[in-house]
Amino acid sequence: MARERHPRRAGVTSLGVGGTNVHLVLEQAPEPEPRSATAAPPDVLLVSATSREALADNVRSLRDVLRRRTALPLADLVTTAALGRSHGRHRIAVRAGTPSALADALDAWLRGPAPLATAAGPVPPGDTATRVVFQFTGQGSLRPGAAAALYGRFPVVREVLDACEAWHRGLTGEPMLAGLLTEGAGTPGAVWPTATAQPALFALQCALVRLWDEAGIGPWAVTGHSVGEYAALFAAGALSLADGLELSAHRGRLMRDHCAPGAMVAVALEREYAAELAASHPGLELAVSNGERSHVLAGPVAGVDRMCAALDDRGTPYERLAVDRAFHTAATEPMLDAFATVLAKIPFAPVRTRFISSLDGRTREPGWVPDPEHLVRHAREPVRYDASLRAVAGERPDVLMEIGPHTTLSSLARRSLPAVRAVPSLHRGTGLTALFGTAADLHCAGADVRWETFLAGTGGRRVPLPGYRFQHRHHWVGAPPGPRGPISPAREERTMTTEVTETGPLLDSILGFLSGAFGEDLTSVPADTPFFDLGADSLLMINVLREIEQEHHVKITMRELFDETGTPRLLAELVAARLPRQPGRPQQPQQPGTVPRPVAAPTPTPTPALARPASDSAPPVPHAVVADTTVADTGFVTRQELQELALRVQQLSQIQLQMLTQLSQISDLLALRSNATAALPNDEVVR
């Protein structure tokens, strides 16, 4: 058929037997737009549920689909899982680059030691915020090219870095951005000069803050290591981007111009021994305390060289930091007065979130305003990041996220706070892998990550994937049903047995009834297929139950059909359990006018008030027994009830047909009247 110029449309009408009518107009779906992918998708697949059991079922169902549909584009897969599903409290995230590899990762999670629990357990309820503490790295972790992947992928990062570059050029006349974008900038292994390293680190960290904010992640509290505290002040709302960049640029230039060259060395020693080591080498000081066995000594280059030689002789491990000044020592004192003058010109605002300073490890509540004295002391005195981490622990964070170019503080936090999930935003040499991994960790911790930020430019589309695997449970209204009481004497001949009966012939019989009702052969359908999957409804199954009743002389209620069986096999087993105890033996003949009674049942004694008149020819029958037979087995649907239901349905259908006929006649009359009016002259129009 030739392609039409306009999309095809169709009308659908549904007339309900209860009087509800639904009318829909459907239009052909538009052709999908050509893919315009400009970025690789995150290799993160999200799965969640509202319970541990449902999570395992969802994982299992998705794994099976990925085994079969190995050609699914990764962008479509992760987009559908992230944006096309609501996220329950029980969550996992697996990472791989292909559907097959993702299926393997899901299968490994299912086969793990605790397949019904996520790594972090259920996330907090929806009204409880996920506590994310931002920790900002110091200067020693910065390397050339740290922002290259971010700058090329995210517009918000480019916006921040370009603005900082313009301000830095205006303040100093020197470029700053080239070092952040070019991995080969400078000599390999060379130290990044302090004058540009400090504003560059501030710009990178502020760009990460803006990126996470766009992704829906804000800080519960902030803390910074050394110069990282300036970006922490920006995240807390105390510094604007322009003022923070200006302050960082002046700080770096003052240290370059007024402070003698120096060096810093990290040693794995306890605080007492680290202080003794510094005292044994004139000019060296304990500049940083990161943890119980993690400290940094700093001083003149010659003194640091002698100390490193001594550490080599003793076999003590150490690491020289990539800096060119001895920060937080007496070497910084020549620049403090000029720095105080710069600080006096900066308009600080009150912090909007908890601020934990590495100067003393104290928590400043929202409303605290930084002052020049605090930041001058912060530049001169040792960094007490060990105290900051203890204060962070007091905030009971769900995630401790590092904002910086590497994993330096994340490693420190894992050693000091093993119970807290510590994750980095970037990992040197791995592109955006760490960023996507941290987004997955935040998601599993309960944070509402806006995945649109990370999926933009990937060209991902939503595709059909398995839906939610509901955990079916019965919820009774009122008291739950108990065991059935004794069957009335009037139906003793239909007493059922619980003995196991061969269900093969019964199953064939039931499938035959279903085939007749559906008008197609269902004898080859698996016996465990649910009735609803076959397309059955309650009206159709009423006729099937009627045929089963006539054929096998048993009663099955509609509630039992759908709640207790639901499949041909289970229905056959229920029918088998209710067959007469000895179907081959004929029933004992009954005397006319009598009601069969159980063998062990005592003969009721009629009362005078309930006895029949003496003129009756039949023997007197107690009225109480007759009443008992009329109310017995009320859980069954009787033939009379079925007939009444069918009659009501027929009446409703006739009423609807009559209404439709009347509407059609009215429509025809209106059309004739409209045509007649149009044919009259203007002055003869009938009003």
Features:
single chain; 687 residues; alpha/beta; 24 helices; disordered C terminus
What is the CA-CA span between the terminal residues?
48 Å
Q: What's the gyration radius in Å?
A: 40 Å
The total count of strands amounts to: 15
Tell me the structural class: alpha/beta
Number of helices: 24
Helix fraction, binned, reads 40-55%
What strand line-up does the widest sheet have? 12-11-6-5-14-15
Strand content: 5-15%
Low-confidence stretches: 114-119, 487-501, 583-634, 683-687
Structure description:
The protein is α/β, with parallel strands linked by helices and 687 residues long. The protein is built from 24 helices and 15 strands. It has helices spanning 52-68, 74-83, 99-110, 148-153, 155-172, 177-181, 194-214, 229-235, 241-258, 271-279, 301-314, 336-344, 372-380, 385-394, 408-416, 433-444, 452-455, 504-518, 531-534, 538-552, 558-565, 568-577, 623-631, 639-679, and strands spanning 9-15, 21-27, 44-49, 90-95, 132-136, 221-224, 262-267, 285-291, 294-300, 318-320, 354-356, 363-364, 383-384, 399-403, 421-424. Strands 12-11-6-5-14-15 form a six-stranded mixed sheet, with helices on both faces. Helix 7 (194-214) packs antiparallel against helix 9. Mean pLDDT is 82; it is low at 114-119, 487-501, 583-634 and 683-687.
